[in-house]
Amino acid sequence: MELTNTLTMKKEAFVPHEPGKVNMYTCGPTVYHFAHIGNFRSYLMEDVLEKFLRYQGYDVRRVMNITDVGHLSSDADTGEDKMLKGAKREHKSVMEIAQFYTNAFFKDCEKLNIRKPDTVVPATSRIPDFIEMVEKLLEKGYAYQAGGNVYFDTGKLDKYYVFGNQNSEDLAVGVRESVDADENKRNKTDFVLWFTKSKFDGQELKWESPWGLGYPGWHIECSAISVKELGGYLDIHCGGIDNAFPHHTNEIAQSEAYLGHPWCKYWFHVLHLNDARGKMSKSKGDFLDVALLEKKGYNPLAYRLFCLQSHYRKPLTFSFESLDNAAQAYQKLVGRVAALAKEGEPDLEGARPFQEKFAQALGNDLNTSLALTVLYDLLKSGVSDATKRWLVASFDQVLSLDLLEAAEKAAAQKGEAVSPEEAAEIEALLEKRAAARKAKDWPAADAIRDELAARHVVMKDTPTGVEWHIEK
Ligand SMILES: [Zn+2]
């Protein structure tokens, strides 16, 4: 397959270090709050990449860290520790906050059908490894101690800004974030490997180290965890584009200085999810998380489809209007799958051209929208229903839209005179109504009830959910 590599900003043929095997690392969440749907755009596209590599027969090993210490409010080593901020806000301990938001993160992943990586490592569980790495960097002359902290010396590198897209804009942000200049730094771009001097007395988590009681800088965790779990040659490193600088730039600096050779071959970055005001972030206005989508009556998989409709290397603009469109598209898709006859054997010969097109689309820099087009073309095509169902199941190993399951559900609920499309629409309305009632949004619930009544839907509440039929 071909992937756009941020190192060169070009589409490159993907060739893993070891044939047939892929080592993949993902920067996990900083668990001080719920992740917003912009964060999930990255995790979701990374999930598609992982599943497509498996679909292609690769043996994929994927590791993710959980940042539960050391990530300061600004990525440039300044500001308060994010975890501590979360703990103060909720009057809990840092570890309680970490546990709660780690669980919440994976629950949201599950709703979005994002597979949990094979190995998930909380940063606080690997402090001795970080210390070992910092010691080696000091030994090799890539690090220095100043003012109680240990810094990485970026002046020792031939090239610090390694990414092909590192333009003056990125660098300006870096400079702006370091306004709170740290006079211990030899170079403006140096970063902290180990803190013993924190401006914040309240830092709860501290460990003994050769440099005194302290805690790790944010970047060291990903290098140390990745090298330990996946070895010195990493195939793909994933993350949101905002992590490219300084986080990934610093990861490369310290990993390659530590290893003494090039480390990661492909950098897979997912672009931002924007809203009307620009890049989505936690600090701005209303907080769009998976729970809010559900509260508003959306199936999280409609958001998954929304993300799949566009290319990961392009910024995506979110609005409820476009999510509505995706939700409708999802219901229609489910309806069409529900309309397929279940009898018969698939024609594997007839399926092959579709399989090839699907693999070509995703193999071309993970073109998910083209892969969806192949799915639509398939449903419109003349191949047998059994072949279509077989291919839908196959494609869904990567797309993870639960198409057959949702179709089953829609079909089970359909009344005699209801088409699968209509059944799917009614299902969607019922879900919306349930969510509106749960949120005590009575006007919305009433409006949906009226719409259902207009469609002659008769509902009955049962212990297992709402049963319904059409009575004209
Ligand atoms: Zn990272």
Q: Helix and strand layout, with pairings?
A:
Layout: E1 2-5, E2 10-13, E3 21-26, H1 37-55, E4 59-66, H2 82-90, H3 94-111, E5 119-122, H4 127-139, E6 143-146, E7 149-152, H5 168-177, E8 191-195, E9 215-216, H6 220-230, E10 234-240, H7 244-259, E11 264-270, E12 273-275, E13 278-279, H8 290-295, H9 300-308, E14 316-317, H10 320-338, H11 348-363, H12 368-380, H13 385-399, H14 403-413, H15 420-438, H16 442-454, E15 457-462, E16 465-470
Parallel strand pairs: 3-4, 3-10, 4-5, 10-11, 12-14
Antiparallel strand pairs: 1-2, 6-7, 7-8, 8-9, 12-13, 15-16
At the fourth CATH level, what is the homologous superfamily of the largest domain? HUPs
Terminal-residue CA separation: 54 Å
Beta-strand residue fraction: 15-25%
The value of Rg in angstroms is: 25 Å
The overall number of domains is 2
Explain what the structure shows.
This protein has 472 residues and is of the alpha/beta class. It folds into two domains: 269 residues, 3-Layer(aba) Sandwich (Rossmann fold), CATH 3.40.50.620; 187 residues, Four Helix Bundle (Hemerythrin (Met), subunit A) (Up-down Bundle). The strands form five sheets. Strands 5-4-3-10-11 form a five-stranded parallel beta sheet, with helices on both faces. The protein has a four-stranded antiparallel beta sheet with strand order 6-7-8-9. A hairpin with a 4-residue loop joins strand 1 and strand 2. Helix 11 packs parallel to helix 13. The longest helix is centred in the first third of the chain and has 19 residues. It is globular, with a radius of gyration of 25 Å. Bound molecules: zinc ion.
